[in-house]
Amino acid sequence: MAEFTMELNDEQKEVQDWVHGFAAQVIRPAAAEWDEREETPWPVIQEAAKVGIYSLDFYAQQYFDPTGLGLPMAMEELFWGDAGIALSIVGTGLAAVGVLANGTEEQIGTWIPQMYGDASDVKVAAFCSSEPDAGSDVASMRTRAVYDGAKDEWVLNGTKTWATNGGIANVHVVVAVVDPELGSKGHASFIVPPGTPGLSQGQKFKKHGIRASHTAEVVLDDVRIPGSCLLGGKDRLDERLARARERAKGGERLKNAAMATFEASRPAVGAMAVGTARAAYEVALDYAKTREQFGRPIIDNQGVAFQLADMRTRIDAARLLVWRASWMAANGRPFTSAEGSMSKLFASEAAKQVTAQAVQILGGNGFTREYPVERMHRDAAIYTIFEGTSEIQRLVIARTLSGMPIR
Ligand SMILES: Cc1cc2nc3c(=O)[nH]c(=O)nc-3n(C[C@H](O)[C@H](O)[C@H](O)COP(=O)(O)OP(=O)(O)OC[C@H]3O[C@@H](n4cnc5c(N)ncnc54)[C@H](O)[C@@H]3O)c2cc1C
């Protein structure tokens, strides 16, 4: 087990400097343009692939860092650059985690490389769980997966929504119902390989923030996939369903595939929020030191300086919660107080508060697209919504702490 330390080791510091350099030199300068275009920034993803930041190797290295700090540290730097572009770069990781969490070694080896492509031909992947009538309430999912034993194929039908990279992905990971009697325990995850007939993009959403990241509906119309595309394989699914039926009889709770994926990714979302908050705080601090009113820099006023003190304190507190949860996950510590959800809840709310304060400190300039805090404030709003809203995080935390079925 890795020893706990508050300090990044030399290797981590090197990675941090490298990712920060890419964020400062490539991502940040492109941010305003791709926010306006509301399109996937393919050239930036390609640039990230060329230097090795958009790759399975880089992602796996950070994901499996024994201290747990590699992934949140990389996320914070990328999202410090720009949230929309960074999500385009790391969105594939959510689908990859879905495969890592539920797939066999063979599935991991076959599909994850196809999610990323290579530097000369970059690809992205999508994780499709949410549906029009199943957002927070994952159990009400309707997309069906039916096994055709004669052909050893699964047939998927339904509509997914809000899928990051949905429809433009090379590989889609789709969560579907295999046994409606079991609610969320009857879900399974599937790979839809590139070019599979029946999968199409529905509406592409025009969003408030993270506009460089593509978000769309994914329609599944009699999508036939080989039996080998069931993540984890049929034997494991049958065993899991049998266990779920048994446990359901005894009233026990069992984690489902989608929840396992979300659980693993929550502190990483907290780290994204820390990156956006830190970016806005830095702009506000510089501005407050140089902008003069009443013959002195506005930071000379406690009303401004104290806001900056609060902003920085919130950011540091958020990072500590994120690092704690990431360290616990990497070291197999059980989340007995829902520490993963706590980190996401606190960091996402902090990002909203800090970016709003940054807009205020920049005054009229903060309200324009001439300065980046306006975009950062719009971007920050996503963190309290995706990967479980703040209300759902509070539900998870309160239920974990109390053991009560709080509604
Ligand atoms: C930009 C973007 C990207 C996304 N990317 C993905 C993706 O890649 N893959 C994917 O599968 N999904 C993705 N999502 C979906 C996201 O996870 C959902 O939007 C989120 O889970 C909330 O679901 P909903 O939008 O249906 O809101 P609803 O569940 O309808 O919630 C609406 C409001 O009601 C509140 N609420 C609901 N239930 C309760 C309750 N029990 N107690 C208290 N309050 C409650 C919520 O907190 C919220 O404030 C994305 C969403 C967005 C906006």
TrEMBL record:
What are the Acyl-CoA oxidase/dehydrogenase middle domain coordinates in residue numbering?
126-223
**GO terms assigned for molecular function:** acyl-CoA dehydrogenase activity; flavin adenine dinucleotide binding
**Residue intervals passing through the bilayer:** none
Source superkingdom? Bacteria
Where the record annotates domain Acyl-CoA dehydrogenase/oxidase C-terminal, the positions are 257-401
Oxidoreductase in keyword set: yes
Gene3D superfamilies per UniProt: Acyl-CoA dehydrogenase/oxidase, N-terminal domain (1.10.540.10), Butyryl-CoA Dehydrogenase, subunit A, domain 2 (2.40.110.10), Butyryl-CoA Dehydrogenase, subunit A, domain 3 (1.20.140.10)
- Keywords (A to Z) from UniProt: FAD, Flavoprotein, Oxidoreductase
Q: Which Pfam families match?
A: Acyl-CoA_dh_1 (PF00441), Acyl-CoA_dh_M (PF02770), Acyl-CoA_dh_N (PF02771)
Q: State its cofactor.
A: FAD
UniProt keyword Flavoprotein, yes or no: yes
Q: Per the database record, which ranges form the Acyl-CoA dehydrogenase/oxidase N-terminal domain?
A: 9-115
Q: Which family does it belong to?
A: Belongs to the acyl-CoA dehydrogenase family.
In its UniProt entry, what is this protein called? Acyl-CoA dehydrogenase
Say which species the protein is native to: Streptomyces sulfonofaciens
